[in-house]
Design brief:
Elements (H helix, E strand, L loop, with lengths): L1 H33 L7 E2 L13 H5 L2 E2 L3 E4 L10 E7 L3 E9 L21 E7 L6 E7 L5 E7 L2 E3 L7 E7 L2 E9 L11 E11 L4 E5 L15 E5 L8 E16 L2 E4 L3 E13 L2 E7 L28 H4 L16 E3 L9 E11 L3 E11 L8 E12 L5 E10 L4 E14 L2 E13 L7 E13 L3 E10 L9 E2 L4 E10 L8 E15 L4 E14 L3 E14 L2 E4 L2 E8 L5 E14 L5 E17 L2 E14 L5 E15 L4 E10 L4 E13 L2 E17 L2 E20 L2 E2 L1
Parallel strand pairs: 1-4
Antiparallel strand pairs: 2-4, 3-13, 4-5, 5-11, 6-7, 6-12, 7-8, 8-9, 10-11, 12-13, 12-14, 15-16, 15-17, 15-42, 15-43, 17-18, 18-20, 19-28, 20-21, 21-22, 22-23, 23-24, 24-25, 25-26, 26-27, 27-29, 29-30, 30-31, 31-32, 32-33, 32-34, 34-35, 35-36, 36-37, 37-38, 38-39, 39-40, 40-41, 41-42
Length: about 725
């Protein structure tokens, strides 16, 4: 009797165990079905011909995906037109092909333009996490005619200055358009292991509908967070190469400048430079350079450079510094943070020699380091400044990381050094927390005392389909200095909060409505006075890639121990009005500060406008205006107005060759600048540029001195030639 009861109990336990296992098995099976399966590209021995036509046998065998869904302006909607992506590879290259259907092919927005100039067009993008570690992305953009743009994304920031070697072609037909592209494994960094795993998100933009979508679809609960939502690509038997590149460049320039009313030639200048790249592994790269080239291919667009509190920011353009630049983005960065960059390589003005090591060591560790010897041309006592920069990051779960920085600029009689830590943590899918803390030591010369300072930043970011919430705190001491970064202001404590709510009306014209409220509270440590900055804005996202923003900003600012109002109203609008016409307009009417030794209150307007007209796919006509004025508050007298008119006209003969002419007039400086450029770029690095420019001023030479005049006089003239060739082993 006892034995039978025992058997019954054992039988019940066994049945319960089997039942629980069955439930767990069903649950795990459901989870496995919901989890996206890895993409296995087709491995081919016969690569496709990159011509934008999908007639190669490889595309008949390659797997494909479809089912793009929108993330802009809303999430999870079926895109109006279907997109099909094919994917393949061989030992040395990645291959992708796209069939992008369009029910109105005559309205496809595309142009033959220069590289990195296609965002106003329709485009496809391959967002590639080459290490599959959710820390950074390569982005390969292609418009329907095969014109390229590329970038690197890390630490919440996208850097479009990087240029990589890859190949693409496009073709528009009666069904839409087709694209083919080839990405050499030598052009990207990836894990040195077998098999190789990468993450990918495919993206498509249809300009006239203000519609962007992805595959895999983005989760509305995570917002447009690409890094944590990639799908895995798996590659077997990739060639792990030893990368070796040489980039020799030659530049020649001839300049003339005004001397006693006559143009006089300065000494001709010719420069040779050499940059080399060596792949220690496929994910760790050593770069070296001698006399890196920094010839300006095109004059920077004019900016208002009068009555400024802060220095203007100009991006890096030198090839040696561009690779790995995104690794210097730091955690806890907040929009408007006075510490814009802890490493801004434009502070290395005229380097004679440079060495750089960057990449990954193991699965979790990233390093980036730079040494450069910079010639000091404007000093008599010192010849060189020595830059030493080191960055370390260790990957955490999702896109989180923790890391540190050291930067140093050493001179014979002084130095600036910064040591600090930073990081970010993904608390849950929509929530990110970031931080940084940097300590600086500075000495201006051998007789000055050492100054120590700190910069602290905390940032909370929450993003879903319906709401974006930001909280931030920055504290920068009075004596914090950086000679390797970009810093606009010291001696402040700044708290920021912001909320953006998204509404989706049932309208084909108004696609989204975004009311936005921000609040900044700032303590100026020098004066112990407080500033407030509360902007309230309403943004409308419309069709035809159109946006309208209206708002009012209640704000104050402390300057040299005095508190001033900087409140005002603002309006912004932009639209791809037709395939041929684009415009962008911004206007602010606000109270201003006269930034001089004895500051005072004023008011005035800031405005900018751009009109772009494309009479054909190959001709681009751009006209822009920048305007600023200032009226004294005490008597309403106009103290100045500042206008810059710029005409930039380009004939793009094909994807490689263009001719460009720029004319810019500065009414405040009473200067006219002309800049003409012929440019041939086969691939990034293999280029020929020929340029000619002049500067005219409203002056005349009279009685042994320069005086103001009504007519323009040519005061500077310059010619330059640059050629470089990328040699890759």
């Amino acid at each position: 009797m006892t034995g039978e009861c025992t058997k019954r109990r054992i039988s019940r336990k066994t049945n319960s165990f089997i039942f629980i296992c069955a439930i767990l098995s069903i649950a795990l099976s459901a989870v496995a079905q919901d989890k996206p399966q890895p993409l296995i590209p087709f491995k081919t021995d016969t690569p496709p011909v990159i011509d934008g036509i999908l007639d190669d046998p490889v595309w008949q065998k390659a797997p494909h995906i479809t089912g793009f869904k929108t993330y802009h302006p809303d999430f999870g909607k079926e895109m109006v037109d279907a997109t099909v992506v094919y994917y393949a590879y061989d030992r040395e290259n990645l291959y992708f092909a796209f069939r992008c259907f369009d029910s109105q092919p005559d309205k496809i927005k595309a142009s033959v333009t220069s590289r990195d100039n296609i965002r106003p067009d329709d485009w496809i993008c391959i967002n590639l996490d080459s290490f599959n570690d959710q820390q950074s992305l390569y982005a390969f953009y292609i418009n329907p005619l095969g014109i390229q743009e590329d970038s690197r994304f890390a630490g919440g920031l996208e850097d479009a200055s990087v240029d990589m070697v890859w190949y693409s072609e496009g073709n528009i037909d009666d069904k839409g358009y087709t694209l083919e592209l080839k990405i050499p494994f030598k052009s990207i960094r990836f894990s040195h292991k077998e098999p190789v795993e990468m993450g990918v998100i495919f993206e498509r933009m249809i300009s006239r509908r203000s519609e962007a979508g992805t595959y895999p679809p983005l989760d509305p609960a995570q917002g447009a967070n690409f890094l944590t939502q990639t799908m895995t690509l798996i590659f077997h038997d990739i060639k792990h190469y030893t990368l070796f590149e040489l980039l020799p460049a030659v530049t020649y320039s001839r300049r003339s400048s005004m001397e006693q009313g006559e143009l006089a030639s300065e000494a001709d200048r010719g420069d040779l430079s050499l940059t080399a790249k060596y792949g220690i592994t496929s994910d760790l790269i050593l770069d070296g350079t001698l006399n890196p080239d920094f010839s300006q291919v095109e004059a920077d667009a004019g900016q208002v450079d009068f009555n400024l509190r802060y220095a203007l920011f100009f991006p890096e353009k030198r090839p040696f510094f561009l690779e790995g630049l995104e690794k210097f983005n730091f955690g806890g960065y907040d929009y408007g943070d006075p510490l814009g960059a802890i490493v801004h390589t434009r502070t290395i003005v005229d380097p004679l020699v440079g060495i750089k090591l960057n990449g990954k060591v193991g699965d979790k560790n990233t390093i980036a380091s730079i040494y450069a010897m910079d010639e000091l041309l404007d000093t008599e006592e010192e010849d060189f400044a020595h830059f030493s920069i080191f960055r370390y990051k260790r990957a955490l779960s999702k896109d989180g990381f923790i890391g540190g920085f050291y930067t140093g600029r050493e001179r014979k009689n002084g130095f600036n050094r910064i040591l600090g830590a930073d990081g970010q943590i993904r608390i849950n899918p929509p929530t990110l927390f970031g931080f940084h803390f940097f300590q600086s030591q500075s000495k201006q010369d051998e007789n000055s005392p050492r100054d120590d300072g700190h910069a602290l930043g905390l940032h909370y970011f929450y993003n879903t389909r319906d709401m974006l919430l930001m909280l931030g705190l920055q504290d920068i001491s009075e004596d914090f200095r950086t000679e390797t970064g970009y810093l606009t202001r010291t001696g402040i404590t700044r708290f920021r909060s912001g909320i953006l709510r998204m509404f989706y009306p049932d309208s084909k014209v108004i696609r989204r409505v975004d009311p936005m409220v921000h609040a900044y509270l700032i303590r100026d440590k020098f004066s112990d006075l407080y500033e407030a900055d509360i902007p309230v804005d309403l943004r409308l996202i419309l069709s035809r890639s159109s946006t309208i923003v209206v708002g009012y900003r209640y704000a104050s600012e402390v300057f040299l121990g005095e508190k001033f109002s900087i409140s005002g109203a603002r309006f912004r609008a932009s639209s791809q009005f037709t395939k041929q016409f684009f415009f962008n307009l911004s206007y602010i009417y606000w109270k201003k500060i006269r930034y001089i030794v004895d500051p005072y209150q004023g008011y005035g307007s800031n405005a900018s406008a751009t009109v772009r007209y494309l009479p054909s796919e190959k001709v681009h006509l751009d006209l822009s205006l920048v305007y600023s004025d200032f009226y004294r508050h005490s008597d309403s007298a106009k103290e100045y107005d500042y206008t810059i008119i710029r005409s930039r006209n380009t004939y793009q003969m094909n994807k490689y060759l263009f001719f460009r002419g720029i004319v810019e007039y500065n009414s405040f400086r009473k200067q006219l600048m002309t800049d003409f450029l012929a440019s041939f770029t086969y691939i990034p690095g293999t280029v020929i540029h020929v340029g000619y420019g002049s500067l005219y001023e409203k002056i005349q030479w009279m009685d042994g001195e320069y005086r103001m005049a009504d007519n323009l006089l040519e005061t500077k003239r310059g010619f330059f030639f640059k050629a470089s060739f990328l040699w890759r082993l």
